[in-house]
Design goal:
This protein is α+β, with helices and mostly antiparallel strands and 242 residues long. It contains ten helices and four strands, in the order E-H-E-E-E-H-H-H-H-H-H-H-H-H.
């Protein structure tokens, strides 16, 4: 059986990490049996989550995990898509992971209120004398990556405006379809759902969350995907209680 290593549930989500969520949804799409095990990034071969152990084969990074699953199990996550649609799926996945995702990073890690409420608690188990320094170091490293991504070089309202333009592009691509590329989910739907759910969780307040929720088809899409792949998770009830 495949073992998927991730952060686990939290922040009002069935899985804290969008990239772990992406891989977990793709495992569900492929109908592959797996078990979940909690881990922290330093345990991964690439220093990031997710990674999997597939009967002794350890694969890190969600994109390479997908390639491994397709190669080993013969599952095509983009089955039914022609070459042009596959190119669109790849382009949207890159936009989501390299643009919208960093908007989520800014909202969670750079905003001091959200950081204290969420990511700061990753270090609660550290020795008390080291805890605050570990929090500061981690926040500094993530903020540095946010700067490198490009979004972090702009004023707070400007970076939200840029990320919202990508959200609008995603909304236009989805339209009134059930999934991004048509009537059946493709691999990029796992990515889009994971990042959008991470933005829309009621756990964090942010302007980017409000912008994301202004696209009715994206909010409906997240609720639909959550019901399909995490039916046991009370997403709508949490949203109503927020």
């Amino acid at each position: 059986m495949i073992t998927l290593f991730g952060l686990g549930a939290g922040f009002g989500l069935p899985e804290i990490s969008p990239f772990v969520t992406k891989t977990e949804v793709q495992l569900k799409m492929a109908g592959l049996a797996y078990r979940k095990q909690r881990a922290m990034p330093p345990s991964s071969p690439k220093g990031q989550l997710p990674y999997i152990d597939d009967q002794g084969a350890v694969v890190a990074d969600s994109t390479f995990i997908r390639a491994h699953l397709e190669r080993k199990y013969g599952f095509d996550f983009d089955e039914g898509l022609d070459i042009e649609a596959r190119a669109h799926a790849w382009a949207f996945e890159r936009m989501i992971e390299h643009h919208i995702y960093f908007g989520l990073v800014g909202a969670r890690w750079v905003d001091p209120v959200n950081f204290a409420k969420g990511p700061a608690h990753f270090f609660d188990g550290a020795p008390e004398e080291k805890r605050e320094r570990l929090r500061e170091d981690a926040q500094f490293r993530v903020a540095e990556n946010y700067l490198i991504s490009g979004l972090g070089r702009h004023a707070p309202d400007e970076d939200v405006d840029l990320a919202a333009r990508s959200l609008r592009a995603l909304s236009v691509q989805l339209g009134d379809k059930p999934y991004l590329l048509g009537e059946r989910p493709c691999g990029t739907d796992a990515t889009a759902f994971a990042v959008l759910a991470g933005l829309m969780t009621p756990f964090f307040e942010s302007e980017l969350r409000r912008r994301a929720e202004s696209f009715d088809n994206l909010t409906a899409y997240v609720s639909r995907m959550m019901a399909q792949y995490y039916p046991e998770f009370a997403w709508d009830r949490q949203a109503e209680a927020a």
